[in-house]
């Protein structure tokens, strides 16, 4: 793993955006694997800025997203398609017919998941996959489990996730209870992985994921086995990792 230490959230965002930007410049028709969540917002903001300044052209880029809630239409402001449109796609010159998010409105989960895997295959795989890191070590919606899930699959959201999400909906009954997510194998097949993290609340899990044993109990720990992973994280997020690493090296 290559570690890039950033000062704070803004620095992390700029460094991560630089890596994505280099990918797009070096291979204009690349396939980007994209993530939602709060961590990539600053990264996307930089990419938009550089595009608007004329430095970055997304016209030949395709993208594939990690996950989507089952049952939410694209125009629901809580859907991940909506997130991507608002925070990136509508503000750069990407061809939106070449941006793929799992189809949350496909009621048959086998079809939705198979379609997403086929799209990734047909595109020739992912050149660069951007990942955020969950507090419990999840990547995509791959939660701690007894084994690593392979391809795109349907997951039941935990009660705590449903309750946490309920603040964004009129009532708890409207909160999606399931999501479609790329599996660990789909993520591991990406040529390059860029994982980003910021803030003290990610410090423990970064240390566990990158210094602890590789186990499906910490899904991100599998990234230790990937040949080309770059972690861009800020000082707060790296505090435990750096301390444990220097203790291990004596
Ligand atoms: C997002 C995703 C999630 C997030 C993770 C971290 O598409 O799949 O795994 O990357 O939950 O979220 P934030 O960035 O909000 O801390």
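^ structure tokens above, recovered residues below v
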């Amino acid at each position: 793993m290559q570690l890039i230490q950033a000062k704070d959230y803004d620095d992390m965002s700029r460094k991560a955006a630089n890596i994505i930007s280099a990918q797009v410049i070096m291979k204009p028709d690349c396939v980007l694997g994209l993530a939602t969540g709060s961590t990539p917002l600053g990264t996307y903001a930089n990419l938009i800025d550089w595009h608007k300044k004329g430095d970055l052209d997304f016209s030949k880029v395709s993208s594939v997203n990690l996950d989507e809630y089952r049952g939410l239409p694209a125009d629901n402001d809580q859907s991940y398609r909506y997130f991507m449109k608002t925070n990136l796609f509508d503000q750069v010159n990407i061809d939106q017919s070449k941006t793929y998010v799992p189809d949350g409105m496909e009621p048959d989960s086998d079809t939705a998941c198979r379609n997403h895997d086929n799209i990734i295959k047909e595109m020739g795989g992912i050149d660069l996959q951007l990942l955020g890191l969950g507090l419990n070590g999840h990547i995509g919606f791959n939660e701690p489990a007894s084994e690593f899930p392979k391809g795109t699959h349907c997951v039941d959201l935990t009660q705590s996730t449903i309750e946490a999400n309920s603040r964004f909906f009129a009532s708890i009954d409207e909160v999606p209870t399931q999501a479609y997510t790329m599996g660990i194998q789909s993520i591991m097949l990406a040529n390059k992985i860029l994982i980003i993290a910021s803030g003290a609340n990610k410090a423990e899990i970064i240390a566990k994921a990158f210094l602890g044993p590789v186990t499906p109990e910490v899904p991100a720990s599998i990234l230790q086995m990937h040949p080309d992973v770059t972690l861009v994280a800020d000082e707060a997020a790296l505090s435990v990792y750096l301390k444990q690493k220097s203790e291990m090296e004596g």
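The mean pLDDT is 96.
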